[in-house]
Amino acid sequence: MDPQLARNTRFTSIYRADQPWLELRLRDGLRNREDAQDIASETFTQLLQAPALLQLQEPRAMLLTIARRITWRLWRRRELEQAWLDTLRLLPEPTAPSAESRYQTLQALQTLDAVLDGLSGKARMAFLYSQLDGMTHADIAARIKVSPTMVRKYIAQALRRCCEAFEA
C-alpha cells in the first residue's frame, strides 16, 4: 500500500473513532463548546502531521497529550491578554494607547511568550526582569534565588532564542 494512502487511512480511522470522544471530553473540561471544537480541530491537525502516525498504539493518549498542550497555550494567551487589559485599566484615559497599539503590543507579548516557551521558569523570569523591569543581575539573582552567574546564563539562553526566532 502507498505510504501516503496508509497514513490517510489511519488518520481517517482515528478521526472517525475518536473525534466525538475528544470534543466531548474537552467540552466537559473547558465548559465551552467553541473552545472544545477549536482545540479538537487543532489537535487533529497536529496529529495529521505526526511522523509516527502509522505506529501509534494509543491514539486517545496522544490526542489528550496534544489537546492539553493546545489548551495550556490557549490559557496562557488568555492570561497574557487579561494581564495586559488589567494594566490598561490602570492607566489614565489620556495616556491609554490606541486600539491598534494595544493589538500590536498584545501580538508582541504573545510572540515573546512563544519564543520563550520551553525555557525554565527561572530563565524566563530572569530575562523578563532584565528586559522589562531593567533589574540588575544581582537583583534578579536575589529575587529568583540563584547566583548572578546563573542569571547571565539564563538571559543568554533567552536572548539566543529571541535571535533564532527573529532570524527565521
> How many helices?
7
Task: Report the count of strand segments.
Answer: 0
Major pleated sheet: none
Portion of residues in helices? Answer: over 70%
The residue-averaged pLDDT reads 87
The poorly predicted ranges are: none
Query: How much is the radius of gyration in Å?
Result: 21 Å
- What is the approximate shape? extended
Alpha-carbon distance between the two ends: 37 Å
Proportion of strand residues: under 5%
Query: Element order, helices and strands?
Result: HHHHHHH
Structure classification? mainly alpha
Can you describe this structure in just a few lines?
With 168 residues, this protein is mainly alpha-helical. Helix content is 80%, strand content 0%.
Question: What labels describe this entry?
Answer:
extended
